[in-house]
């Protein structure tokens, strides 16, 4: 059977994604009740290639492997041959001879696809310029834990049409909820990704209109990794797109607020938003651990029903 990769949410079927969310919740509850006693990754190794910075992604993947009896290797281009020009396809073939699964955080999504095409072991996208699917597993898990099935509900994306926005659009397709994408003109998500989602996703430019009656509101930084030099221009262009307590007041009374983090207080969110009870970002961050345990388990072992 062909090697399964997880480069976007479209690599798994809706049914498989539902399984993963439920499995992540089971794993989390079991860990809470029994501690880390389950060791399905014994003698398995995850290679983690990071070409961009990370706190949550690195710690959650490394901890997931440790809790489940396996091992994780942190590989940076600064001190591997990747940084000296060894072709990614050669690296993929070499690592597949040694490790069981690979996680990559990189710039080019096409480069990630090229790596995966050459890899005989599963490859996980841990963020590219175009997508961040692992974050969406944790986000949908959090939404499901707190509110039950997300099917037919309404989420609102405020801000840049970036990698996170693209993954929210794919999540709306796969989990069958409505998504309103609200961004400044000129910062819309990619047209092909938007169009493929059909009428589940609508594009707006007025945050107050977008959040009216919403079940969930989410945002992200205005300048992503690699766009640092655009910071000042983006701060000006995104004026009026800050998510504040007052903006959430226009959504449903039980609205939830998510942010993949790291957040910039005073920019895309108000100074105090993360202290508001509607913000569930710490639970969301913690769920990266549980969701990725379920993902790695699925890619290495298939479905598990205990
Ligand atoms: N949300 C997220 O991916 O965080 P890190 O950049 O810290 O990994
Ligand atoms: N859009 C952000 C997400 C960080 C987790 C970035 O790519 O930098």
Automatic annotation (TrEMBL):
Carbamoyl phosphate binds at residues 54-57, 81, 105, 132-135, 260-261, 288. It is found in: Cytoplasm. Pathway: Amino-acid biosynthesis; L-arginine biosynthesis; L-arginine from L-ornithine and carbamoyl phosphate: step 1/3. It catalyses: carbamoyl phosphate + L-ornithine = L-citrulline + phosphate + H(+). Its main location: cytoplasm. GO terms for cellular component: cytoplasm. InterPro entries: Asp/Orn_carbamoyltranf_P-bd, Asp/Orn_carbamoylTrfase, Asp/Orn_carbamoylTrfase_sf, Asp_carbamoyltransf_Asp/Orn-bd, Orn/put_carbamltrans, OTCase_ArgI. L-ornithine binds at residues 163, 220, 224-225. Keywords: Cytoplasm, Transferase. Residues 152-298 form the Aspartate/ornithine carbamoyltransferase Asp/Orn-binding domain. GO terms for molecular function: amino acid binding; ornithine carbamoyltransferase activity. Its EC number is 2.1.3.3. Residues 4-145 form the Aspartate/ornithine carbamoyltransferase carbamoyl-P binding domain. One of its GO terms (biological process) is citrulline biosynthetic process. It holds the Pfam family OTCace_N. Belongs to the aspartate/ornithine carbamoyltransferase superfamily. OTCase family. This is Ornithine carbamoyltransferase. The gene is argF.
